[in-house]
Please model this.
Amino acid sequence: MDLKKEENPKDFLSTRETAKQLQVSLGTVQKMVETGELLAWKTRGGHRRILMSSLEQLLTRRRMGIRERCGNQFLLLCILRGEEQFEDFKKFVEPWESSVDLHLCHDTLEALMQSVSLSPDVIYLDWQISPVEQVHLLHYLQRNLHTRHIPTLVEAGFLKMHPQVTKIPPEIKEYPPNKEPKILTNAMIKGYKKDKLLLAKGELNLLYAHKMETLILDCLVQKCEEAGI
Model:
């Protein structure tokens, strides 16, 4: 099939863009092309172009599989600015296809304790929480081995302003005195683009709700794959 002729160039992604979407290495994307998991063609310069619809189909299969492997229900811990937002968020998750065990809190100290005791599948950190509280919470979540691997959704603009919160604190004792500790980035901290939960007259923001559920399912896919589930 001549993919180049049948599809518009804007419907293709580079190998690097595809790897970013899938949260995998460039080599893994190349193997997926070779095995037929992804459809692609090569430019005259020898660069692969991945068919967007092929990537979307793969992501859809992953999201369907996550429900089979990890169950239809997941526990979502939400840290919101105040109790008045609780009802709005409950309405926000109503149209989701997934069954959500929703736990809400508006205090970052409480959120930290619940993260340890509940071991949620995903943590949602609302963008309206003060930056200082967000930095402190993420710092402690990173340092705790039990919470470090929980996918945590953080507003993308905040992550851009505070990139240090994605860095995993090195364990100094693991390195010889003459070597610098290796700084690792936590791939489980994901950025989301903020939007309104409810539109005018209290109507649900269905498009945003769908995007958030999709992001959460993608996080669960990655979490299960890394755990070997």
